[in-house]
């Protein structure tokens, strides 16, 4: 599998997930681009959002995804994240039923408790995908769905850009970033038992370029992806 170090054009100082997101927190919601994941979530057709009884948002961060789920009518949403500071921010949104500090690959939450599991803009921080897909399988009810939305491996490699933020001193700081080809997602998910219900990719388009004109050279390149996986019932 590709190693991000072979593509890195920025050479920013790199920190681990907990350090990075704790430091990014004050500016996270104003700098993360909704255009990367929200249009993909809006475009999914296989998830019956308002009939979901119980959802868990893995890598919930400050609650952007939870807020979107809540507005789509998902009633009971739990959240899991590794970074205590972002969990405190998520708590303030009021959209989560319960919040847990844990790794998405080993949550300790009850098995077969969720008919929807989401993981948005998190996979590039995971060294391995198989533990995530196995843990999501353990958490899902029979017939349950897993939605994975991510920064596209193609654009990570083509741009050489890690997930990064500007800290309070003005330094650009990278957060540990891994490249996972879409075939790696497919293999890990299929090995865990999931079946593919839907897949979408979002290109760099006029909307994205209006917000980020410097990306013109990437016009048409895939920017982000969404998978919907289903745990077969029975
Ligand atoms: C880019 S944010 C995405 C947050 C939210 N889903 C959103 O779309 O705004 C990535 C989040 O994943 C969390 N994270 C990264 N690796 C994790 C892991 N192994 N287990 C739990 N949380 C993790 C980070 O703490 C951070 O809050």
Describe this structure in words.
The chain is an alpha/beta fold. It is 33% helix and 26% strand. It is built from 8 helices and 10 strands. It has helices spanning 17-31, 34-43, 64-71, 84-93, 130-139, 153-159, 182-192, 206-211, and strands at residues 13-15, 55-58, 77-81, 98-101, 114-120, 140-151, 164-166, 172-175, 195-203, 222-230. Strands 4-3-2-5-6-10-9 form a 7-stranded mixed β-sheet. Helix 5 (130-139) crosses helix 7. The longest helix has 15 residues, at 17-31. It is globular. The mean pLDDT is 96. It binds S-adenosylmethionine. Residues 17, 21, 32, 37, 59-61, 64-65, 81-83, 86, 103-104, 120-122, 125-126 line the site of S-adenosylmethionine. Residues 17, 21, 32, 37, 59-61, 64-65, 81-83, 86, 103-104, 120-122, 125-126 line the site of S-adenosylmethionine (SAM).
List keywords for this structure.
binds S-adenosylmethionine, three-stranded mixed sheet, 8 helices, alpha/beta, seven-stranded mixed sheet
Summarize it:
By secondary structure, this protein is an alpha/beta fold.
SSE diagram, text form:
Layout: E1 13-15, H1 17-31, H2 34-43, E2 55-58, H3 64-71, E3 77-81, H4 84-93, E4 98-101, E5 114-120, H5 130-139, E6 140-151, H6 153-159, E7 164-166, E8 172-175, H7 182-192, E9 195-203, H8 206-211, E10 222-230
Parallel strand pairs: 1-8, 2-3, 2-5, 3-4, 5-6
Antiparallel strand pairs: 6-10, 7-8, 9-10
Helix pairs in contact: 1-4, 5-7
The structure holds S-adenosylmethionine (SAM).
